[in-house]
Amino acid sequence: MPFQVLSSPHDHPARPVNRLMLQVLLALIPAIAIITWFFGFGLLINLTLASATALLAEAAVLRLRRRPVRPALFDLSALVSAWLLAIAVPTILPWWMVVLGSLFAIVVVKQLYGGLGYNPFNPAMAGYLLLLISYPMEMTQRLSPSIPREHMPDLLQSLHISFLRVIPPGTTWDALTGATPLDELRTKLAMGLRVDQIHSGSFWGHLTGQPWEWVSLALFISGLWLIYRRVISWHIPLAFLGSLSALAFLFFLLDPQRYPVGFFHLVSGGTMLGAFFIATDPVTASTTPLGRLIYAAAIGVIVFAIRSWGGYPDAVAFAVVLMNMAVPMIDHYTQPRVTGHKRRLGP
């Protein structure tokens, strides 16, 4: 029986946006579970607040713009931005700051530019930067992973911390909070200690704080799953992690007592979250194969530079937003040659 075969080009069937976003949300669940295990229920509170705010804000703005509300809410893009913001901020952040960051991400960064597909900046990272620059003290207070499990705030105590700023009885803010590995490294280096002296403390795991190692491992495995499912491409994670590792290894060889080994940067801070879930945002990232490599490699360079010599211990949000600005130029100069056309060599 003869079959009709259409001529090329052939294309894959379209994949609905909500299906892609759902897979991103599913990929974040292992990291969410690990963070909740090590740092209590604060993340779940932040997720609830950020998600509710994002969905309500998106619906309200769409109503004001007289646009269909249901399709936009069910594409799950607002929920992805809310989850990424909630994971990035401290688990003991005041409730109103979580709401403010989510409102800014959806209303200002996303909807005021035209909605999904038109926003030039990653909404979650823009909301994170608003909070970090405006409220640096609150944004650097994180639960200490060295708190004994029996003293870890339960759900009710976490609600008190978030809404009333009331900590469990018998403890203090100094005992409850602690530095991240990047904070610890920066502070101790400023005090004149060497990297090997800093890493000898019980605060560190194999190369960084143990909870962050587990979170980074979960995000790395989930990121590989997203690549396997073709939700994201391999270009951005490879270029980001590759450039960051290469710079870290080079400076480690030059001065191992001031610059930690490259693997430290991979499992610290927001590296894995940025490489697989933030820099890969299809709206704000470069769209050409070569452009993705340039875009992501530059993010890795900026992250290392700010971590090593800048004023902030982590820099993923700054690096991503800065390179979002450069995406139109990168895409313009990295367009692949159209089949059947010769590349122009002269003016």
Can you describe what's shown?
The chain is mainly α and 347 residues long. It has 17 helices and two strands. The chain has helices at 17-39, 42-64, 70-74, 77-88, 95-110, 123-134, 136-139, 155-164, 173-176, 181-190, 195-199, 210-228, 235-254, 262-266, 271-278, 289-309, 316-333, and strands at residues 142-143, 177-178. It has a two-stranded antiparallel sheet with strand order 1-2. Residues 6-11 have low confidence and may be disordered.
The unreliable regions are 6-11
How large a portion of the residues is in β-strands, by DSSP E? under 5%
Helical content class: 55-70%
Output the radius of gyration. Answer: 22 Å
Mean pLDDT: 87
Distance between the termini: 54 Å
Number of extended strands: 2
> What structural class should be given to the helix and strand makeup?
mainly alpha
What oligomeric state is this? single chain
How would you sum up the major sheet?
A: 2 strands, antiparallel
